[in-house]
Amino acid sequence: MKFFSFAVPLLAPVLLVLCWIWMAARIANQVILPPMDQVLYILAHPFEDLISMGSLTSNLLVSLVRVLLGYASAVAIAIPLGVIMGYYGMVFKAFNGFLNLFRPIPPLAWVPLVMAWFGISSLATMTGVETGQWYVYLNNIKFSMLFIIFVGAFYPILTATIHGVRSVNATLLDSARVLGAGQSQIFRKILIPAAMPAIITGMRIGLGIAWMCLVSAEMLPGSLSGIGYMITHAFTLASTDIVIAGMISIGCVGALMDMVFRRVEKQKFSWQRQTNS
Amino acid sequence: MSDTPIINIQGLSKSFATKSGDQLQALDDINLSIRPRSFTCIVGPSGCGKSTILRIASGLEKASLGQVLYKGDPVVKPGADIGLVFQEYSLFPWLSVLDNVAAGPEFAGVDKQTRHRDALGFLNMVNMAEFKDAFPHELSGGMRQRVAIARALANEPDVLFMDEPFGALDAHTRILLQQELLSLWEMTHKTVVLVTHSVDEAVFLADEIVIMSARPGRIQDVLTVDMSRPRTRADKAFGELSEFLLHSLSPDRV
C-alpha cells in the first residue's frame, strides 16, 4: 500500500517521459521533438550561454524581476482598494461596475494599446539613466511589460480581497468596537487579519497569472531578454530543445512560487480551516 | 432602590425597515433603570428586541426614539465603560487566548508587557490561564465563553452586558458557567445586564428580572427576586418563580 501511494503520483510523469523518448526516436527530427537528453543537458547547465543570449538563469532572473515589479504594483493597489470596496458599500457600488468592464479583457489584448502608450520606454527612460550597467538593468524593465503583468495579477487579488473583507463575521467587528477600537484599528487589527487568508489566496492566484502573462509581455517589441523572449528567439532559430528547456523552467519557477504561498497559508492561517464563520 | 441608577433607559424605541419597505417596530417605549452593582436579567421570546436593547445601550446601534443614559450622559458610541459579551464567534480567531483578552487594552494603547500581565490575571479569574497560548478554535464552547468574559472584564468596564452568553452551550456547561459568572460578579462588583431566553437562568442569576413581550418589543413586567444566594433549583420558591415566569411568557396569543 505504501509503495502504491508513493508510486501513483509518479505514474503520469514516467509515462510522459517514456512517450517522449519513444516519439523522439521515431520522429528523429530535433526541430519537432528533440531527444530528452539534449533538453536535460541544457537544464543541467543553467549558467551556460545559449544562442548568445545569456544563460537560462540570467534570463529567468530578468523575468522574475519583471514579474515581481508588476506584481508588487498590483498588490499595492488591489489590496487597499479591495479592503475599502469590501467595507464601504458605496465605494463598491461606485467602482464595481466600472472595474468589471475591464475584467473580461485578456491581458494580451492590451498589448497594442499599451504599445501605443508606452512604446519601448522603460524604467531607464523614467529615471533618466542613459549609460552604464544600470542602464542595461533598468532598460530591461519596460512599462508595457509591467502593465500587462499588472493587469493579469490585479483582478484575482482585488476580487479575493473584497470577498475576504465582506465575509468577515460582523460579531468580530462589533466585539472590537465594544472593546474600544477606533476606525483605523478596525481596519488594521480586525478587517485585514480576518480577511488575510482570502487575500493570500488571491495573491497566490494573481502571482500564477502574472507569471503566465510574462511570456506574452516578453514577446513585445523592444524586449531583449527574459525567458519568454529566449523561447521565442530560440523558436526562430529552430532550437526546439531550448524552447522546451525554457518551458520547463517557467513551470518549475511558477510551481516553486506557488509552493511558498501554500506554505505560508498552511503555517499562518491554520486557524481559518477550523473556524466556523 | 436607594442608589441612583447607573444605566437609565428612557422612552427607547427602535424600528427597522424591512426588505418590502415596511417599518418593523422592534422596541416600543422601553423605560428601565439599572442600579449599580445589580444583576439584571432580561427574558423574553425571540424577536422581542431584547438583544437590540443591549446593542443600543452599548452604542453599537442608534435608537429611533429615546435615549440611554450612562451615569447621566447619553451613550452615543461604544466605549470602554460598557462591555458586551456575545453568544458566540466573538473571539478573534487569529489571536491567541492571551492576545484576545489583551485586545481592549491594546486598542487603548497599553504596552505589551503590561497588557499581557493583566490579561493573565483575568484569565486566572476564569480558570483559563493554562490555555493562554491556545487559539480559539482549539477550545470548547464553554472555554471560549470564559475567555470572552475575561476579555470583557480585562477592559475594566463598570457595566457588563451579556447577550445570551451561554445560549450555545450544553446544559451542564451552562450551569457551571452560571455559577462561575455569579462568583465573578460578587468578586468584581460589576453591574451586569444579561439577556436570555431561559427562565431558569434568569431565576438562578438575577436580582431583577425584566419580562418582555414581542411584536412590538415591550416591557411587560419587572420582578425583584429576593431569594438569597446561592440559589438551588430544588428550592420551592425557585420553582414557583420559574413557573410564574413561564406562565407570563406564554400568554394565550402564542
Structure description:
The complex is a heterodimer of chains A (277) and B (254). With 277 residues, chain A is mostly helical. Chain A is 78% helix and 0% strand. In chain A, 34% of the residues are buried. Chain B is an alpha/beta fold and 254 residues long. Chain B has a domain at 93-146. Chain B is built from 8 helices and 10 strands. Chain B has a 6-stranded mixed sheet with strand order 6-7-8-3-9-10, sandwiched between helices. In chain B, strands 2-1-4-5 form a 4-stranded antiparallel sheet, covered by helices on one side. The longest helix of chain B has 18 residues, at 171-188. The interface between A and B is medium-sized, with 25 and 30 residues.
| Biggest sheet record of chain B | 6 strands, mixed
* SSE pattern of chain A: HHHHHHHHHHHHH
Unreliable segments of 5+ consecutive residues of chain B: none
How many separate domains of chain A?
A: 1
Helix-strand sequence of chain B: EEEHEEEHHHHEHEHEEH
Specify the structural class of chain B: alpha/beta
From the spread of the alpha carbons, the general shape of chain A counts as globular
Q: Give the N-terminus to C-terminus distance of chain A in angstroms.
A: 38 Å
CA-to-CA gap between the ends of chain B?
Answer: 34 Å
CATH homologous superfamily title of chain A: MetI-like
The strand line-up of the biggest sheet of chain B is 6-7-8-3-9-10
